[in-house]
Amino acid sequence: MKRQVDVHQHLWPPALVEELRRRRQPPYLDGWVLHLDGEPPYSVDPGDHDLPRRAGQEDGLVLLSLSSPLGIESLAPAEAHGLLDAWHGFADDLPADYGLWAAPALVEPDLDGLEKVLAHDRVHGLQVPATALATPIALEALAPILAVAQQVDLPVLVHPGPAADPATDQPNWWPALTSYVAQQSAAWHSWHVAGRSLLPTLRIAFVALAGLAPLHHERLAQRGGSLGAIDRHVYYETSSYRTQAIDAMSRVVGVDPLVNGSDRPYAEPTDPGLGEALSRAILVANPHHLLTGGTR
Fold first, then answer.
1. How far apart are CA 26 and CA 3, in angstroms?
2. For residue 209, which of 280, 294, 267, 123 has the smallest C-alpha distance?
């Protein structure tokens, strides 16, 4: 029987924590206080990054995601490599119920090295920051990296990247409700315009229901665009949303593209409350199809 899957959680390995503590410019850790450009200092709970403690809370397969708002993928190569190596090295230490999304260096991509990382049996796909898909032209530039995932038949997860503007006078939740949502929407629209023609078989999932971008299809039509046919290889991860948003999305894109993700420890897993059949589709069947391409 297929297991429940949570395609989106965060947990930092000790090696990554140490690399972040060695830094003196964002992103860096001062003890357990995280400093980023564009966001207020954030006090991290060490227990959130304790793998044995977290494993006791889970049921099924959990995929861990590099925190793209850190901006590691876009650092200069000399800065990025140690951090990315620490992240990818985590795959060697994960128990069977955990997997990893790989992360690329965006400034000087090593496509051969990325392919080797994707071959690890604990790596289930490639994550990219939404800021790297902010426009169709940006998507075209990113396409060679995405093509590596397509070539090895693994999916891509689009996750919010660094917050766009400093918001130190705002609540800690501000970026998650403003910059992150806008990034996901822009990335989805870029994919809608240019993605499928560049990468005809890539399975791609957008965190946080793509910032609810498909719900704007009526406005898209009024402004000269069209939602068009539903792309069966595009998926929408549910983290931080519940019954109303998930129900609204299902009415536009259907149930099959909706996949369970929690964003733990920043949000908690939740049942959408829309019935047993839909819950099983989102928690079990659809994530397996995203990860393997197999029959739903």
1. 38
2. 267
Q: In the chain, how many H helices and how many E strands? A: 12, 11
Domain with 162, as residue range(s), is 5-292
CB within 8 A of 37, min separation 6: which ones?
26, 27, 71, 162, 163, 166
Q: How many domains does the chain have?
A: 1
What integer is the mean pLDDT of 7-15? 98
pLDDT at 166: 64
User: Over 104-163, what HEC string results?
Assistant: CCCCCCCHHHHHHHHCCCCEEEEEEEHHHHCCHHHHHHHHHHHHHHHHCCCCEEEECCCC
Residue 46 has pLDDT above 80, yes or no: yes
Which pLDDT belongs to residue 296? 46
Work out the pLDDT band at 38, boundaries 50, 70, 90. Answer: confident
Tokens 């990054």, residue? 49
CATH value at residue 43:
3.20.20.140
Whole-model pTM: value is: 0.96
